[in-house]
Each structure stands twice: as C-alpha cells, then as structure tokens.
C-alpha cells in the first residue's frame, strides 16, 4: 500500500469505528469493537513503519 492508500484506509476505518461506537450495544458489540480497533492499530503501525522517515524530513 502506498502512503495515500494507507491514510485513506485509516480514515475510513476511523469513521466506521466512530459510527459503530455511537450505535446500539449488543452481544456482537465487544467482538466487533475489538476487531475494528485491532485493524486500525495494524494500519497505523504499517503507516509509521513505512513512512516514519517522512515525518521528520
């Protein structure tokens, strides 16, 4: 994934997570919240590993 794709994917996932958090809480809530947050963590780590040098340039 290039930088723009990673940023877009992170933004989309954050939006999905925000919508999910504000929605109804049922038995699937915890499982889905964990799944979304782990995916977001993985994308953020991939972004920083790949582009951390650009942050300080």
Automatic annotation (TrEMBL):
Domain of life, per lineage: Bacteria
An example Gene Ontology biological process: regulation of sporulation
Pfam families, alphabetized: SpoOE-like
InterPro entries (UniProt xref): HLH_DNA-bd_sf (IPR036638), Spo0E-like (IPR018540), Spo0E-like_sf (IPR037208)
Alphabetized GO MF terms: protein dimerization activity
Gene3D superfamilies, A to Z: Helix-loop-helix DNA-binding domain
UniProt-recorded name of the protein: Spo0E like sporulation regulatory protein
Source organism per UniProt: Caldanaerobius fijiensis DSM 17918
